[in-house]
Structure formats: structure tokens, C-alpha cells
Design a protein that fits this description.
The protein is of the alpha+beta class. It has one domain (2-93): Conserved Hypothetical Protein Mth637, Chain: A. The protein has helices at 44-57, 84-93; strands spanning 2-6, 9-17, 24-27, 32-35, 64-68, 74-80.
Length: 94
């Protein structure tokens, strides 16, 4: 699910799986799953999630925010500085 938050801002839900053996991004029809090697303790998994998304989309980490569910596996992510079309193009490459 992609939600338009502004002219160049999008929101989407990511399912996070911490303590994975390797970092991986997987997609299904509507959900993006990110496997993280980091632990949720001390916000390490959230920081790793932001780093991975920033690297994949090629945008600054400061443009990415976890809007909802910082302590849950399903997170609402907001990315500023990209359009819905750019996000969809990135998701196609996964």
C-alpha cells in the first residue's frame, strides 16, 4: 500500500523481521518485508531499516521517518523527496 503524503512525499507499510541471518528486502503484492540483522533493542533495528531504505532508494537518511509503530513489526514509513512514481519504480526492481 502506498499513500501520497504530499507532492514529493510518500508513505508505505514495511514489515520488519529483526535478528535475521542476513539483510534482505522482499515484496509481496501489497507488503514490503525487510529482514534486518540488528536487534530491536536500543532502536538499532529502526536505524538499520532507515539506512537500508535510504541506500536502496538513494536518498538521504534524514528524508526517511518512521511515522507509526516504532516498537512493532509493521511500520508506517514516510519518505520525503520522492514521488509515488519513483517509489513504484524502486519496488519493481526488488
Amino acid at each position: 500500500m502506498v499513500e501520497i503524503a504530499g507532492a514529493e512525499s510518500v508513505r508505505f507499510i514495511v514489515h520488519v523481521k529483526p535478528h535475521a541471518s542476513r539483510i534482505a528486502i522482499e515484496k509481496s503484492d501489497k507488503l514490503l518485508t525487510v529482514r534486518l540483522t540488528a536487534s530491536p533493542q536500543n532502536d538499532l533495528a529502526n536505524r538499520q531499516l532507515i539506512e537500508i531504505i535510504a541506500k536502496e532508494i538513494r536518498i538521504a537518511k534524514s528524508c526517511i521517518n518512521i511515522i507509526k509503530s516504532r516498537k512493532n513489526h509493521n511500520k508506517l514509513i514516510e519518505v520525503n523527496g520522492i514521488t509515488e512514481k519513483q517509489l513504484k519504480n524502486w519496488r519493481k526492481k526488488i
